[in-house]
User: What shape does this take?
Amino acid sequence: MDLPAPEPEARAHSERLSELIRAQVRAAGGAVPFSRFMELALYAPGLGYYSAGARKFGGGGGDFTTAPELGPAFATAVAEAVAPVLRALGHGACFFELGGGSGAFAAAVLPALAARGASPAEYWLLEPSADLRERQQQRLREALPADLHARCRWLEGPPEAEWRGVLFANEVLDALPTPRFAIRDGEVYEEHVVLGAEGDFLRVDQPADALLRAAVRHLERDIEAKLPDGYRSEVLPQLPYWVQAIGGLLRDGVMLFVDYGYPRAEYYRAGRSDGTLRCFYRQRMHEDPFFLPGLQDLTASVDFTALAEAGVNAGFDFAGYCTQAAFLAGNGLQAQLEAIEAIADPLEQHRRRQEIKQLSLPGEMGERFQAMGFQRGVDFRAAFAAGDLSRRL
Assistant: This one.
């Protein structure tokens, strides 16, 4: 792979995490599920990719660029979509952002909500990385007016009491540690990680447990096809439990998820026979999950059919599903384009046009990324009216 070499300090950091994972493999009897390897690689305290403190978001030295990092257009569209919900819920409604990245989304969405008369009583951020929490706090102190900054609150975990408002997650589901499965002689196996003779990481198959086996058989029934021998992919049996954990106490309000992925029938089509697992290192995508653990992102696409099932099973009504391009178009994109035309600075005008193109064009993020919403006690369906694709689920 033609990937840039890390600095000595970064390589030493990766080796410390690798040694931790090796110790876990040995303690588990010589093998851990791939999902456990992914969990440690991303979230091991002080060492994992999302908790180690390395710069991960934004252009240049980052490993990938999320929609909020491009500019305010994405957050403005989200504000347009959820403002009616927050106004309807009235006093005490909160906005709960999972993750938060560099704080770019919060810095843009809070003023956009205020401009629409829909400021939340509090803005909650749940961020597993202590370093990113510090960056978010500094950015929001500098970017927000005092009255909006005073609404920001960082959580250690999901709310523990009933609440009302909006739950929002952008590019969160793709980073959930996912089991990998394989079909061999008609049976379901799970990928595990073992150690080679030199302590290197290797993948092997072991018989799947009952939960993973049932999840694979469920998706086969749903797509009305048996997966062929040799087929490999990912499935998240824990997704319903995760959705219940993060949203179960939302008494009245909406959940909005934006991520890349497919409806189930497309996700598990015969031609996608090795799944969707990908790795991102310094703006380059590759397929080796064992390359420099802790210095690269590991990610898998979202099964949006599974997400729809999980949301409904958690007690929400399904609100809609569409591409990111359709979501933007249905939530004020035209007004944003007209505002760009009024910008006096030609360089800023060009930058904003390029931002819109990257967010909405099919060859960029417009169709690869999709939005899905759920509602309870409010009506959120209008946010998806520009191009609802629920029929594809």
Remarks:
- Residues 67-172+239-267+301-392 form a domain with the Rossmann fold fold (CATH 3.40.50.12710).
- The longest strand covers residues 250-262.
- Residues 340 and 352 are 7 Å apart (CA to CA).
- The mean pLDDT is 94.
